[in-house]
Amino acid sequence: MATTLFNNAHDFQLSAVELGARIAAGAIHDSAERCDAPKCHPETRVAVQNDLYDWILGDEGPSDHPRKIKWVTGPAGSGKSAVMGSVADRCAGNGVLGATFFFASWSTSVGRRRKTAFVTTIAHQLAQHREELRTAISAAIEKNADVFEKNLRVQMEVLVLSPLREVVRQSDRPPLRGGIIIDGLDECEAEQYHDTTTPGRRGETRTNELRRPVGDPPERVFREFFDPENNPTAFAKKLDLHEDHNADADITLFLEAEFNRLRRRYNLPLSWLPPNAIKILVDKASGQFIYAATVIRFLDADHREPPKALLEAILGMQVITTSNPLEHLDALYSHILSSSPDAPLSVQWIHSISWLKSSKGSYASNIHLLLQTDSQSNEAEHLLGKLHSLIRIPSPRDQATTRYDFYHKSLFDFLEDPDRCGIDLYVEENENELFIWNAFVRACARTSGTQLKYQEPFLQLLVDIPAQLVLMHGIGHPEALSTSATSTDWWVLLATECKAAESLWQMFKQVHKPNLEPFHSPEFGINSLVGT
Question: Can you give the pTM of this predicted structure?
Answer without folding.
Answer: 0.71
